Amino acid sequence: MNDSAIDYAAVFQALPGMVALLTPGLVIADVNEEFLRAAGRKREQVVGRLLFDVFPENPNDPAATGMRNLKASLQRVMATGERDAMALQRYDVEDPERPGHWQERYWSPCNAPVLDPGGEVVLLVHRVEEVTELIRARGGRSTGRAQGLEAELYSRARELQELNERLRRAHAREREVALALQEAMLPASRQVGNHRAAVRYRPAVGALNVCGDWYDLVDLVGGHRLGVSVGDVVGHGLAAAGVMGQLRSALSATSRVADGPAQALDVLGRYAHVVDGAESATAVTTFIDFDRHTITYSSAGHPPPVLVHPDGRVEFLDRATDPPLDARPDPIRRPEAGTAFAGGATLALYTDGLVERRREDIDTGLARLADSLRRHRAADPETLADAVLLELLPPGGATDDTALIIVRL
Question: H or E element: which one contains 294?
Fold first, then answer.
C-alpha cells in the first residue's frame, strides 16, 4: 500500500486514547473524537483555542501542579525535539455542564514532536490516557495491601516528578552562573567597537546546553592587522565555560606573538592536551592584514569562515582544515592558507550551532548561511548579524549555543 492510499485523517481518529495536535504556540490545531468524548467538550470549544484556556488549573486547589507540569513538558519537547513521557498527573477538569464545579481527574500524558524536513518542531502531539476510573475502581475493590502499594506507587511518582523539577531548577541556576562567567571572559563591546565588526552569542534553549562556544578579536602587532577567532568546546555548563575561558585566553595571547594563524593553533593544540575537558575542541583563526588586503587562516576541525566579496561572490575559507585541537600527538605544523579581498568585503566566523540541524546535511546549512550573507552584504555589520541570526536560527531557539562574528573589511 502506498502513502497516497492511506487516509491519515481516519488514522488520526482511530488512534487509541485522547490525542490533540498543538501548534508551537500551544494552540489546539486538532483533536480526535476520543479526546472530545473524554473531555466532555465539542470540537468548536477546543480547536483554535489555547490549550490552557480550554483546560485551566483548578482555582480551588492551591497545591495543583498539573498545568505547570504539562506546560514544562511541552516546552521541553519544543526545545529538544524529543518525546517526553510524564509521570501520572492529577489535573482537575471543570464540569462543562456545571461551570465552577471541578472534577478530580487523573491522567497519564505523553508529548511528542512533529518535525519538518529541517528538523524543526512544527506541531506537538499530546496523547493522554485517563486513569481516573482505574484509580477509583482499584481503590474500591483492592485489598488493604494492594491499596497501600498503589498509594505508594502514586506517591513515588509524585516524588520523582518533584525531584526532576528541583534538578531542572538547579540546572537553570548553573546555566545563569555559566552565562555570567562566559560574559565576563568574552571580549568587551568597547573592544569590538574599535573595528567595523559585530559579535553575537546566543545560548542554547535548555538548562544545560550552553557555554561551549567563544569568540575573540585581537589587535596584532606590525601594521594594521586584526586576529579574529571562534571556537567550540565539547560539553556544557560551568565546566565547558571554564575550558572555553582557558582556550580563548591562550589563543588570544599566542596570536599576539605567533608568525601566523597556523603557529597560533599549533601552540593552542599543545596547550589543549593538558586541559581537562578540551577533548575534541575546535577553533578557527584568521589574521586580517588591512594594509595588504589579505587574510591568512587556519582551522582545527571547525566550520570554515565565509568571505563575501563586494560583488556577491561567496568564498569558503576551507583550504587549511586540520583535526580538532587535541588530535595531533606530534608537533606537526598545521596547514595555513591565504586569500585576497577588496575593500567592502565581509568576513563571517561562526560556530556550528548556526548551521547544523538535526537530520540535515551540514552543506545545506552552509548554503543557507552563504545566501543570507550575500543578500544582506550591503548592510552594516550590526544589521547584517541580526539578519543572519533571524534567518538561520529556529524561532524558538537552537539546541546548541551559537557564536557569530561579522567583520567589514
Answer: strand 294-300
For 239, 251, 260, 268, 325, the CA distances from 278, given in Å and listed in that order, are: 10, 13, 22, 11, 8
* Residue in 249, 301, 243, 231 with CA at minimum distance from that of residue 274: 243
Provide the percentage of residues in the chain whose pLDDT is more than 70: 79
The overall longest dimension of the chain from CA atoms, in Å, is 88
User: CA–CA separation, 187 vs 194, rounded Å?
Assistant: 12
Q: What is the per-residue pLDDT across 5-49, written as a single tens digit (0 to 9) for each?
A: 788 888 888 888 889 999 999 999 999 998 998 888 899 999 999
Q: Which parts of 273-331 fold into alpha helices (H)?
A: none
Other Cβ atoms closer than 10 A to 246: 17
CA torsion through residues 347, 349, 354, 356, sign: positive
Which three three-digit cell numbers place residue 296?
A: 591568512
Task: Kindly report the pTM of this predicted structure.
Answer: 0.62
* pLDDT level of residue 190 (50, 70, 90 thresholds): very low
The DSSP annotation for 51-62 comes to HHHHS---TT-T
Residue 11 has, within 13 A of its CA and on its CB side, a CA count of: 5
Q: Determine whether 102 is exposed, middle or buried from the number of CB atoms within 10 Å of its CB (0-12, 13-18, 19+).
A: middle
Tell me if 348 sits within 8 A of 368, measured CB to CB.
no
Strands 121-130 and 106-115: antiparallel
Our CA angle for 221, 225, 228, nearest 5°, is 105
Which grid cell sits at 108? 497519564
Separation between Cα atoms, residue 375 and residue 356, nearest integer Å: 20
Q: What is the CA radius of gyration of the chain?
A: 27
pLDDT at residue 100, rounded to an integer = 85
Residues, the chain: 409
At 131, the amino acid letter reads V
Give how far the C-alpha of residue 337 lies from the chain's centroid of Cα atoms, to the nearest Å.
Answer: 32
Task: Summarize the confidence of residues 287-299 as an average pLDDT.
Answer: 96
